[in-house]
Amino acid sequence: MASKMNTMNQPTLQDDGTYLYEQVADKMTTLIDGGTLRPGERIPSVRKLSGQLRVSISTVQQAYVLLEDRGFVEVRPQSGFYVRLRSRNLPPEPKPSSPSPSATKVGVADLVAKVFEAARNPNVVPLATAIPSSDLLPTKQLNRQMAWVARHNGREAMNYDFPPGNEALRRQVARRSLDWGCSLSPDDIVTTCGTMEALNLCLRAVAKPGDTIAVESPTFYGILQASLGMKAFEIPTHPRHGIDLDALDRAIKKNKIKACLVIPNFNNPLGSCMSDKNKKQLAEMLGHREIPLIEDDIYGDLYFGATRPKAAKAFDKRGLVLLCSSFSKTIAPGYRVGWTAPGRFKAQVEHLKTMNTVATATLPQMAMAKFLENGGYDRHLRRLRKALAMQVQRMILAISQYFPEGTRVTRPAGGFVLWVELPKRVDSLELYRKALDKKISIAPGPIFSAKQKYQNFIRLSCGQPWSDRLEQALITLGRLAGKAQG
Amino acid sequence: MASKMNTMNQPTLQDDGTYLYEQVADKMTTLIDGGTLRPGERIPSVRKLSGQLRVSISTVQQAYVLLEDRGFVEVRPQSGFYVRLRSRNLPPEPKPSSPSPSATKVGVADLVAKVFEAARNPNVVPLATAIPSSDLLPTKQLNRQMAWVARHNGREAMNYDFPPGNEALRRQVARRSLDWGCSLSPDDIVTTCGTMEALNLCLRAVAKPGDTIAVESPTFYGILQASLGMKAFEIPTHPRHGIDLDALDRAIKKNKIKACLVIPNFNNPLGSCMSDKNKKQLAEMLGHREIPLIEDDIYGDLYFGATRPKAAKAFDKRGLVLLCSSFSKTIAPGYRVGWTAPGRFKAQVEHLKTMNTVATATLPQMAMAKFLENGGYDRHLRRLRKALAMQVQRMILAISQYFPEGTRVTRPAGGFVLWVELPKRVDSLELYRKALDKKISIAPGPIFSAKQKYQNFIRLSCGQPWSDRLEQALITLGRLAGKAQG
Fold first, then answer.
1. At what angle do helices A46-53 and A20-33 cross, to 10 degrees?
2. Are A160 and B131 within 8 A, CB to CB?
């Protein structure tokens, strides 16, 4: 559907940083969620709604495409848009988080290690790790590029590609930076072994062990682990709109916060996406106090809406935003190709990179650059986004069917993880163990918090295409959660 | 010549941990160095020397092969062994180091960064970085394996190869461990992005920021840098026999040493190689006090003698030795494939690996495993060792010809770096800058010491095949060193 978008007018940005068509889509979603528009019903024609809401035809068209991408409606040829079956009566979203306002030494290592280990077992239904199924990845195309560069760049392939790393790859990343509101040059970028190394290097460039880092709550356990003896200050975060800027403002005024680490686009595990307005405010608020912002944008390309959300880096005026990302969620986890644009900290990051792994493997960088250059990426992304949006939607529906009353679940507008709040009586660590006995791996809530909060939350990955096996796993999970004792 | 070795008797190990034939070769070297045997002269026949020294024919044969490999003698068909031209009047070796007995916070970052940066310039003669010329590497064979695995293992290639890492590769490493006196199983091993990541992970597994690590003096700057806020306690080290065990013993008795980090085989920059006896003593001395030993064996396969030196890990009875190595000096720096056998710290190392880079790139590991499996490695190593031994010897001769009086230089029995002590008046940092103006990169001594000692030392890499350009660079270097003011 994204190709259809290209022929439409440019969407109009509203004061609150969202697009008008998104507001229209949200309105329709509310009607569908609330049961006003029921499964199988035809929704108003584009012309009709345009008149009802007094917005342009093109805005409604864009809204409907978005609704389709999100899995709420489907097109019936020659007829119009219809509400998809089973897309109502969904569980509500979790409420914004409210972590206690103090810093915590991070130490959830053992638990994370166990979860990771379980996830490696091929006999287990993999709902724990946020890994896209290789069925969704451009396996043939990318490996063909790899075979080609291995055959044609012998000597270059053998040598260290010292930091800042492969130039062709940095050029490709810089070109794409226009998509997320930046205009990076290849010289702004340092390549890394995936986003994880990028985050590690950036954290070490701006903070020392013992320093306090402000993070979203909940947030990706990798970041907490990576923090190398640093303390995490957890900031309340809204499941749809992201980090609470007022709370962050209070935190940086009252405490010595050395840096801030945020996933503005499709936070893992929340799926929240900050508006442009909030991103701008975040960059300015921290910039004003000279606090570096480490931005993890690994899910940024996996938006379900019509346009790629911007990076907070787009609003960076002082070189204080260290943007980190990779191709591990979009092209090939196993290639381990990531990068960072660390602003004014580039020299330190380059040096830390040299001392951490010397260089990123040469051939994977070359193959990735070739793949990006040859134009397959955008086409692939369109397919991938659509598939993930469907999988996320399918999983939400299954949760609404099979999970006990009182369950809440997020509505991510990108990425492919769901954050599920279970009834208070459910202990997610026990659920994790019981699920593993049934050969299902899930990520228990406490690993997303330095304080090991979120006892009754789990994160589910929607990286696998829908299947009977998956549905059976969700039925089992729901049953286990329902049986949990108070 | 190594193939000839295979038909000889097994060499006899002496009480001091060296082989008898090595002692014979050392004796002859002394005669050549001292001018008793002069260039172009025929040395005693095998039979004659066997009678003179009362050792077996086979021992003398092995000694002469070693001397040939080291570049001291050459065979003339139907005639015998002759002293190579220009192989006498060599500068003496540097004396054992004597660092002051206290711990130092490591901080030579800026200097190391500059040296690395200069080394990346292709217009500069690369004597600074210990990188083997790609002319010496199995470029075609390895890249062919890479193209093959990329075409035939599509899905597997795309996926994370989570720690402990690629199983086929771990099996190959475990097989080779017999060569260095160990008998590892694949389960003992964790793969990494090169030796540098292995060292980082092992350091972090056994020590915290602020802890003190005992190291050789001088030693590889990467290790010092990697130490992540740890302190280095520099131990005197002999240019031929390695770390001074008495001094180490005193240090661990008097100070709180959290771990010891050593390069027993061909220390970088010294080229020293510990005897088996000393390795055993080292492992026992530390084991007795439960102090972990991180062993860097990256140069172990690059021996010039007849047999592969053992790892200290061979004498590890308590799982306290964390052995680290890679294929970056022997097969392909750019593939970034390394590994560690971290003994009882395996769980921590695996976890730290996950949190540092998640996984090592999949395809490079698969290609490397295939290359090792298909048996090309040993053949390649024989050629590589011979080439490096010649290059090292050639460089020593050039130093003896072109460097000022008072210069000392090491006689490494493996690896490919030389540690050069210049007259006291020479400031190696100034020499480094002046050499760079002339487009020659060298590694100044202070980067090999946390205390920035070794002001009048430089390290020269012999990774490049001998050429007029190289000779010209050494003439220039020698001239610059000679002109240095007191």
1. 100
2. yes
Is residue A484 within 8 Å of residue A430, measured between CB atoms? yes
pLDDT in tens, B57-115: 889 988 998 888 878 888 877 778 888 865 446 778 888 888 887 777 766 677 777 78
Q: Quote the minimal CA–CA distance from B364 to chain A in Å.
A: 8
How far is the alpha carbon of B113 from chain A, nearest alpha carbon, in Å? Answer: 6
CATH of A138-377, one of 2.60.120.10, 2.115.10.20, 3.40.47.10, 3.40.640.10: 3.40.640.10
To the nearest whole Å, the CA of A95 is away from the closest chain B CA by 30
Q: Residue A400 in contact with residue A158, Cβ under 8 Å?
A: no
Q: Under CATH, which number does the domain B107-135+379-483 receive?
A: 3.90.1150.10
The distance of Cα A446 from the centroid of its chain, to the nearest Å, equals: 19
Name residue, tokens 């460097």. Answer: B403
In this prediction the pTM is 0.84
Among B335, B143, B119, B138, CA closest to A160: B335
Distances (CA, A) of B208 to A112, A291, B238: 20, 26, 29
Mutate to test the interface with B, among A363, A366, A384, A461 (most CBs of B within 10 A): A363
Cα gap B466→B439, rounded to integer Å: 17
The rounded percent of chain B whose pLDDT value lies above 90 is 64
The whole-number average pLDDT for the span A145-165 is 92
The kind and range of the H/E element at A483 are: helix A468-483
Q: Which residues of A touch B359 (CB under 8 A)?
A: 333-334, 336
With a CB cutoff of 8 Å and minimum separation 6, the contacts of A468 are none
Burial class (CB in 10 A: 0-12, 13-18, 19+), B77: exposed
- B159–A335: do the CB atoms touch at under 8 Å? no
Q: Report the first-to-last Cα separation within chain B, whole angstroms.
A: 46
Q: B18 CA to chain A: closest CA distance, Å?
A: 34
Average pLDDT over residues B38-61: 84
Q: pLDDT at residue B246 above 80?
A: yes
* Token pair recorded at residue A28: 């329709």
DSSP 8-state class, residue A33: H
Per DSSP, A306 falls in state: S
Fold of A2-83: Arc Repressor Mutant, subunit A (1.10.10)
* Mutation target among B136, B159, B199 for the A interface, most CBs of A within 10 A: B159
Instruction: Give the residue from A366, A362, A321 showing the smallest Cα distance to A163.
Output: A362
The secondary element (H helix, E strand) that includes residue B366 is: helix B362-373
Domain boundary assignment for chain B: 2-83, 107-135+379-483, 139-377
Contact A180, A308 (CB under 8 A): yes
CA distance B133 to chain A (A): 9
Contacts by residues A482-486 (CB-CB < 8 Å, ≥ 24 positions apart):
A482/A403, A482/A404, A484/A422, A484/A423, A484/A425, A484/A426, A484/A427, A484/A430, A484/A431, A485/A425, A486/A425
Interface A-B: count of C-beta contacts within 8 A = 194
Q: Tell if the CB–CB gap between A157 and B140 is shorter than 8 Å.
A: no
Shortest CA distance from B160: residue in chain A: A334
Which positions in chain B touch A142 (Cβ < 8 Å)? Answer: 158
A345, burial (CB in 10 Å: exposed 0-12, middle 13-18, buried 19+): buried
Strand pairing report for A125-126 and A440-441: parallel
CATH number for the region B139-377 comes to 3.40.640.10
Residue in A336, A349, A365 to test binding to B, most B beta-carbons within 10 Å: A336
Given phi > 0 = left and psi -120 to 50 = alpha, else beta, which region is A328? alpha
Asked if A157's CB is within 8 angstroms of B143's CB, the reply is yes
